[in-house]
Amino acid sequence: MSTDEWTALLDRLEEDARRVLAAAPGAAEIVDLAPWTPPSTPLPPGMLDRARAVIELQRSAMDRARGDLDDVRQHLGALTRIPGTRSADAPAYLDVDG
Predict the structure, then answer these.
(1) What is the pTM assigned to this prediction?
(2) What is the residue-level pLDDT of the chain in tens, covering all 98 positions?
(3) Domain locations along the chain
(4) How far apart are CA 47 and CA 91, in angstroms?
(5) Least C-beta-crowded within 10 Å: which of 60, 63, 77, 83?
(6) CA-CA distance, 91 to 86, in Å (whole number)?
(7) If you count DSSP H runs as helices and E runs as strands, how many of each does the chain have, helices first?
C-alpha cells in the first residue's frame, strides 16, 4: 500500500471507531462496520504514531461496545427472573394476613 492508501485506511478505521464512540447509549454494538482487508505492504515508518493513535481509539471503541453488551446482558438476566404468566387456576394474590 502506498502512503495514500495507508492514510485512507487509517482514516476509515478512525472514523469507524468514532462512530462507535458517538453511538447512543446501548447502541454501540449496532454500528455497521464494513470488513476491511489487511494491507499487503508494511506501514510506512512516518505513519507509526498515527497508527498507534488509531489503535488506542479502537480500543476505546471496543471497551464501549463491550460495556453496552454487558448492560444488555444484565437487562436480559433481569428479564429472565420475571415470572411467566400464571395458569388460570393459580391464585392471583397471596394472603399474608391469614
Answers:
(1) 0.68
(2) 588 899 999 999 999 999 999 988 877 777 788 898 888 889 999 999 999 999 999 999 989 888 887 776 776 777 777 777 767 777 777 777 86
(3) 3-72
(4) 70
(5) 83
(6) 9
(7) 2, 0
Burial 10-31 (b: 16+ CB within 10 A, else e): beebbebbeebbebeeeebeeb
- CA-based nearest residue to 56, from 18, 94, 98, 24: 18
Q: How far apart are CA 4 and CA 2, in angstroms?
A: 5
Give Cα 4 to chain centroid, integer Å: 29
Answer yes or no: are the C-beta atoms of 7 and 47 closer than 8 Å.
yes
